Amino acid sequence: MALPEVSFSEDGERRYLHLGTPWVQGSMKLSEPFDIDLEYVQRMMAWLLFTPVTSVSKGHAMQLGLGAGAITKFCHKRLRMCCTAVELNPAVLQACRGWFKLPPDGPKLRVLIEDAARAVRDPQWQGVVEALAVDLYDHEAAAPVLDSEDFYRDCRGVLSEHGCMTVNLFGRSASFERSLGKIAAAFGEDAVWVFKPTREGNTVVLAQRTPTRPKREQLQAQAEAIEARWELPARKWLRVFKPATRALASTVV
Q1: How far apart are CA 49 and CA 219, in angstroms?
Q2: Where would a tag sit more exposed on the chain, N or C end, judged by fewer CB atoms within 10 A?
Q3: CA pseudo-torsion sign 149, 72, 234, 228
Q4: Phi, psi for 184 (deg, rounded to 5)
Q5: Cα–Cα distance between 137 and 192 in angstroms, integer?
Q6: For the whole prediction, is pTM greater than 0.90?
Q7: 7-46 burial, b if ≥16 CB within 10 A, otherwise e?
Q8: 38-249 sits in which CATH class?
Q9: What are the b/e assignments for 201-235, b being 16+ CB within 10 Å?
Q10: Which residues pair with 159 in a beta bridge?
C-alpha cells in the first residue's frame, strides 16, 4: 500500500502536519509543544470526566493514529501516563520526532509501527487501556479508515473495566450516523456520549467500557478539577457534551 508523503507548514505560531494534501492532520503551538492545540483533540480527552484525577497517572493511554502526536505527548508529559501509540506510516513517526517534539521511546512511552486493526486484537492489550483515542483518517480525510462494528468491539476489548474510547468523526458527514450506530452496537447505547461538532465539523464520540451516568454536579466538579490541574476547557465540554441516546434514535446502521 502506498503511504502519503509527510510534510509540515508553519504560520509563525503553529506548526501543522500534512499528509500529501493541504488538509491539516495535526497541529502544535510552537511555544507550548506539549499542550493540545486543536479543539477537537482537546475533546478527545473527555474520558478525564469519568476518571478520578488522583488515579490518572497510574493508567495506560493508547492512541490509534499518531498524527502530530498531540495526545501521546500530553498523556506522557502532562498526565504522566504510560503511553502506547500505533501508527502505520513510519514517516509520520519520523516527522513527530523531528518536527513535533515527540520524545523517544522509553519505559513509559512507545510507538508501534503497525496496523491499528491488528494492534487492538493483540492479547497483550486486552483489558489494560484506560484511555483509547481513535483518530484514523487517510490523506484525504474523508471518512475513518477503520469503521466497522467488529473493529469497535476489538477497541472495547482493550479497555479496562472503567476505560473509555474517544473517536474523531465528522459530524456533518453522511457517514456520521452510520459510525455512531456501529459504536453503539459494539459498546451498548447507554455507554455512548457525543459532542456537538466543532466549527470544522469534527465530532468526538466517547464510549465507556462500563456505562455510567454521573449527576450533573458530579461532572461539573470533575470538570473544574481538570481545568485546575491541566488547563483543558472541561467546563466548556459540558455545554456541548451529552449522552447519545437521542441521536441514536434516528441512526440507521
Answers
A1: 6
A2: N
A3: positive
A4: -65, -40
A5: 21
A6: yes
A7: ebeeeeeebbbbbeeeebbbbbeeeebbbbbbebbbbbbb
A8: alpha beta
A9: ebbbbbbbbeeeeeeeeebeebbebbeeebebebe
A10: 129
